Amino acid sequence: MFRPSTRHNIPSSSTNPALEVKVNKRQSGIGANPAGPSTRYPYRLNFYETPPTLDITLEEFETFAISRLRVLSQIEALSHRSLPYAQVQSSITNYTKTHLNLSSNTARNVNLDEERRRDEIGHWVLRLSFCRSPDLRARFVRSEVALFKNRFETDDVNERSSFLKSLQLDWQVVDENEKMRYEKELKLCMWEKKDEAFKNESWFKVPWHTVPDLVGSRKVYIRAGMAYVPQSLQISLVLQAFASRLEKALELTAKNLPRLDEDDRLGPVIDHLASSFLSGVASSDYQSSDSAAAQGVVTAEMVDDVARKHFPPCMRNLYDRLKRDHHLKHFGRLQLGLFLKGIGLPLDEAVVFWRRMYGATMSDDKFNKEYKYNIRHSYGQEGKRTNYPPKSCQQILTQNQPGTQDSHGCPFRHFSPDNLSAFLSSTYPQIDRGSSEMRDILDSVKATHYHVACTRVFELTHGIKKGEGLGGSESVAHPNKWTDRSRELEREVVERIKKKEDSDEMMIDQ
Amino acid sequence: MPIPVRDDPPSSPQVMNAFYRRLFPYRPFFLWLNQDQVPSKLFTHREFAFTLAGDVYIRYNSFHTSDEFKKELIRLNPSRFEIGPQYSARPRDRKTLAAGALQPQRRELVFDIDMTDYDEIRTCCTDKKICKRCWGYIAAAVKVLDHALRESFGFKHLLWVYSGRRGIHCWISDPAALDLNDDQRKSLVTFLEVIKGGKEQAKKVNVRGNKDDADLHPVLNEALENLKMEFVKLVLHDQDCFATERGWEALLSILPQDREVIGNLRREWQSDPTRSSVDKWGDLQQAVGGLKKNNQLLFRKYEKAMQDVILQYTYPRIDAEVSKHRNHLLKAPFCVHPGTGRVCVPVNPDLVDDFDPDTVPTVGELLSELDRAAAMENGEAGSQRRTEEYEQTSLKPYVEMFEKHVAAVLRDSRGAKRAAKQESMDF
């Protein structure tokens, strides 16, 4: 799997001397920190114009792409949650900091090259998986543009302007004569109408169709097919350039992708990446986290209590069904059983739990023969002894679609809107049937953003501010994450109360 | 034997067949869509949709050549047909293509203005009817849109086409217009669209951002200057929109609701119902003028609101959805409107005020003109038969106008091609 790195891995040894000279010159122009950025990545921002031609390991190929994918799907989820602009931007900033950080050239003690290489490789890998359908392309471009915009806005002012210079976008500057000729019109399009502001502002002239957003909102003066864009709205131009170049490049990649048949190693990875984005999953693999372990073992007796307080809607639905009918169909058992394993129900407790739930409807004999095996199987104690992980939202949404008698699946995806709102309002007293929150949720469902709807339910049932999600605006991507976070929140409350009691006691002591 | 066409319904199948065989201007029509002499993708990958008798609708037709198009048109004999975009492949091959492989690519930028959108502000006709008087609204709209599209957006090749009953279409054939994607079309329409809101919304002009008294965008300002005259002529004098109680209540409801100003006006107008719209507009101007001295803020608000009134009553009411998407189908020029039998002829935007929908030739009239001409020719033995039959009918000036437009489009597209060639030679 691992291929030893070759000299291509050392970015400074570019094989193209002309390129090297040019890049060096450019860098000396800024007077950048000599210990800082390398020649391959002189800026934090990147238009991703030339593909990286370095050797990478398969593992890097996948992990870099996944970290970027997380960020992109997080951005997409945020954009669908109608949050205030500032909140969206700050949570994007926070999220990228943990998953795909890029430091500015002035940062110390950071391996800038490594960060930027990660960023670049991730981008190019995702291009491969997202170029295939117009829908995927559009979503990829939208998220990438949002990411770029966030970085552009948070970038150091000097670095940003030298980056812009390096792009050599040929925007025509409106000269003083022309500016005075259209003074009246230009002023009408400005927010600040003072003469002083007009004098200090400068305009670019670009074909109107390159800045559709500014045209649509009537923010620019238009004459003879040219839009007069003030310096202050420059970001629109940059984003437009970024988006249109990316769109073109993706179409080109799509055309050439069939010729990439050399590789059986990359194909599955690329396929997988695209499909996890489609189901809106930021981090689909669930590993029983420390928090779950810290919360200790769940016993069969405890399940009912945990279910009422901490189960996500899909599991709550299955559990309620099981309690009522004393029976679940195969995929329902599998979905709930693996989930219970994930929250810390050991095998022997699981056997007790299921035996109890089936109750008198089933003889001991039948249970032992037909059901115990399956339970043990899912815990990796039978057959090929695989310890199956709990199903992620992606799997629940896309695999084993429920048939007419089944109750597994995702309520947001597999319930009719009427049934969904009835189910939610009867299960969660915090959500009223006719409330605006319910409308919000149903709207998200209609737009097929199931994870957004689910996250909203989490926020509402846990008294959390809109947009916070599972902490740090992470959206629900795995049923077990819901439960972990929910229990964590409960523990925090308990601890707070305990602390308060302790201090109260101390007061009494004194 | 001349066929007694006049007794037929305006567009019976026989009449339509004769029209497609003898009168439809295939040559300029092909050149207009194709922008070149030899068939290009603009023609061969273009969708045509036919409406046949009994509301049968056939989509995704495409043709290799103009002749093939003609043959099929005569064979199918549609009551009307529409034009779509140039697709990434031939639309007729749709079923053999991979899913999603048929994507709209290029298409003229189109606009559609329909008289029904003016029903709430026209007093002469309603519903499907149209007369020379309410055509005034369309004329005002054409002038404003034509000006904005040419001066602001820099388009040159605008073809205005009467829709056959109570509306008008505009087709823009500039290469820059053909290349616009859906986002860009949408932003252009959003820019131009001023009248928004349904029946339940009285004030339909909200173009000043969040503030009531902000300035208009310079392009709208320019439109407003041009519309002030139209407003007096059309809305106050001709249509007399504020004559009835319903009319002037509508006016009052879209002004700022200052109790004193509105109350005074209402009282005055109720006491004298004979006051004309001109008088009432004068009353309003006077009342607002009175505010200027002691209530500057309110004056400004009313001043801007009166501008908005002018826009609401005269600014083009475009059907935005038609223009936003490349794959929206629009009835072709020189079609026959199935209801009226009138031919969808080009309209000269400079003379749009003089255009009278009632004088547009119907297909029946055109065919009898042909018969008469044939009878005359038979009398004059030996006279040469002309190449195109439409030249003997009143369709002639319209086809000539169309040909002139097409020639200009072709000239530009040839120029562009030559420039591109030059560039590639330089390499």
UniProtKB/TrEMBL annotation, chain A:
Domain of life the protein comes from: Eukaryota
Cofactor(s) of this protein: [4Fe-4S] cluster
MF terms in GO: 4 iron, 4 sulfur cluster binding; DNA binding; metal ion binding
Annotated region described as Disordered, given as residue ranges: 1-20, 468-487
Domain DNA primase large subunit C-terminal: 305-482
GO CC, one annotated term: alpha DNA polymerase:primase complex
Cofactor binding comment, as recorded: Binds 1 [4Fe-4S] cluster.
Residues that bind [4Fe-4S] cluster: C314, C393, C410, C454
Example GO BP: DNA replication initiation
UniProt keyword Coiled coil present: no
KW Lyase (keyword) present: no
Protein name, entry field: DNA primase large subunit
Organism: Kwoniella europaea PYCC6329
From TrEMBL, chain B:
Gene Ontology terms: cellular component: alpha DNA polymerase:primase complex
Coiled coil: none
Domain of life: Eukaryota
Alphabetically ordered keywords of this record: DNA replication, DNA-directed RNA polymerase, Metal-binding, Nucleotidyltransferase, Primosome, Transcription, Transferase, Zinc
Pfam families recorded: DNA_primase_S
Molecular function per GO: DNA-directed RNA polymerase activity; metal ion binding
GO biological process: DNA replication, synthesis of primer
EC number(s) reported in the record: 2.7.7.-
Family: Belongs to the eukaryotic-type primase small subunit family.
NCBIfam families in UniProt: primase_sml
Name by which UniProt lists this protein: DNA primase
Biological classification of the source: Eukaryota, Fungi, Dikarya, Basidiomycota, Agaricomycotina
